[in-house]
Amino acid sequence: MRLRIYRYDPDSDRGPHMQDYTVEPEADDRKLLDLLVRIKSFDDSLSFRRSCREGICGSDGMNINGRNGLACLTSINGLAEPVTLRPLPGLPVIRDLIVDMTQFFAHYKAIKPYLIEKAPPPDRERHQSPEEREKLDGLYECILCACCSTFCPSFWWNPDKFLGPAALLQAYRFIADSRDGATAERLDYLDDVYRLFRCRSIMNCTEVCPKGLSPSHAIEQIRQALLARSL
Amino acid sequence: MRVFSGQVPWLLQRLTALFLIAALLVICVVIFLGLLPDYSSWKAFAKSGHGATIIFVSYLAICTHAWIGARDVLLDYVKPISLRLTLLVAISLLLTATAIRLLLILGAQLPV
Amino acid sequence: MHRSATNHPRFLNLLQMRHPVGAIVSIGHRVSGLLLIAALPALVAGLEWSLRSEADYRQLSEMLLGPWARGVFVLLIWALAHHVAAGVRHLLMDAGVGSRLPQARASARLAIVFALLCALAAAIGSLS
């Protein structure tokens, strides 16, 4: 199989360029990550992040044939050749397919991704009914791989001010959580022309989420929550 | 300015859109059913109080909707605040000028 | 030329990405909106002309069907049709209708095709 991979070495004078590779998949190779690991065996200089190899750690997000995805969940079968790999769009490239995720995680931190309680802690458990727990489905599964935010045009134009689909989905995960007591403050924070309202429902996020989540739907829910409390 | 922060323009954009869709449907009906087929019928409509009002209110809706849309584009692409403010003011003046012009045109039609 | 820590490249070449249909209809919505704003002064001027006199009204209708004006007319019809179709799609999605991915893709395609058909109709209509 033929691949064209984005190469960039910050220590060399050469700018970013594409490099061609040819790899023969073995019988057991199923996913793009398998091919990348095979390339590593004869070209050790190729750098990319990877860990769990099963789509749960979110490390190996990259732009595959023009769309974002996880290398470990992308099947070799049916991949158009040459398989063109580039780093996640918009974020500074550290090396080859490795990008600087600082801005992405800063937005995540800004939405306070932890339960905030006003009431004193209960004697025993914090109760949550099955119906209340169901509200978190489609939100808690996010692995923070950044495929969505780095495919969002609004995030490309304002990565510092627009929170992006991932952070917004996580913000809604806590707004929807019955155990959290800071809903009003969370909504206040989001009600801003840049933080939330740069979203135009382009829906690129939902198109590329490797976990099948819908950040655009979560953002819609936040807007409705904002509207409901101001009317 | 709190009023321009997030929700207010977003909602106003939707409300003016709904109004304009209705207006567009009416215009399509008028054109395709030939309800104002020539100069004299069109002139009579614009001369009437309610006709002129409808035209002007619709144009105000267009200006509001357009202003909010233009502001969104500027917020996305123009980073330096002073440049963004300048362009926003320029667009506001342009839209206001066309609205005043329309007001004068329609005012000139009305019987004294 | 060694790159410092603050001078990293970024991959942002839009031509090298495979854009989903939702992104296409969205950029069309934006471009058509800007075209329509640019046409507003002409709209008001045209309105003024159409009310000035019978002769001016007729001259305006004839001018709108002139060779170069025809192209502009077709473009503006496309812009209006696309902006309205994409706008209606947005309004429905805001209300929760068709916001799931398969439906969103279908409505995006519908909006694009509808606008192109309107432009085609305008082109054919202005030729006759």
Notes on the structure:
The complex is a heterotrimer of chains A (about 230), B (about 110) and C (about 130). Chain A contains 8 helices and 7 strands, in the order ββαβββββααααααα. Chain A has helices spanning about 30-40, 100-110, 130-135, 155, 165-175, 185-190, 205-210, 215-230, and strands at about 1-5, 15-20, 60-65, 65-70, 85, 95, 100. Chain A is elongated. With about 230 residues, chain A is α+β, with helices and mostly antiparallel strands. Chain A has 2 domains: about 1-100, Ubiquitin-like (UB roll) (Roll); about 100-230, Alpha-helical ferredoxin (Fumarate Reductase Iron-sulfur Protein, Chain B, domain 2), CATH 1.10.1060.10. In chain A, strand 6 and strand 7 (about 100) form a beta hairpin. By secondary structure, chain B is mostly helical. Chain B has one domain (about 5-110): 3 helical TM bundles of succinate and fumarate reductases. Chain B has 4 helices and no strands. In chain B, helix 3 runs antiparallel to helix 4. The longest helix of chain B has 29 residues, at about 50-75. In chain C, helix 1 packs across helix 3 (about 65-95) and helix 1 packs parallel to helix 4 (about 100-125). Chain C has helices spanning about 20-50, 55-65, 65-95, 100-125. Chain C has one domain (about 25-125): 3 helical TM bundles of succinate and fumarate reductases (Up-down Bundle). Chain C is elongated, with a radius of gyration of 20 Å. The model of chain C has no long low-confidence stretch (mean pLDDT about 90). Chain C is built from 4 helices and no strands. By secondary structure, chain C is mainly alpha-helical. Chains in contact: A-B, A-C, B-C. At the B-C interface, helix 1, helix 2, helix 3 and helix 4 of B face helix 1, helix 2 and helix 3 of C.
Task: Sum this structure up briefly.
The complex is a heterotrimer of chains A (231), B (112) and C (128). Chain B has 112 residues and is an all-alpha fold.
Task: Please write out the topology.
The complex is a heterotrimer of chains A (231), B (112) and C (128).
Chain A: E1 2-7, E2 17-22, H1 32-42, E3 61-64, E4 67-70, E5 83-86, E6 93-95, E7 98-99, H2 102-110, H3 130-134, H4 153-157, H5 164-175, H6 183-190, H7 204-208, H8 215-230
Chain B: H1 7-32, H2 39-47, H3 49-77, H4 81-109
Helix pairs in contact in B: 1-3, 3-4
Chain C: H1 21-52, H2 54-64, H3 67-94, H4 101-127
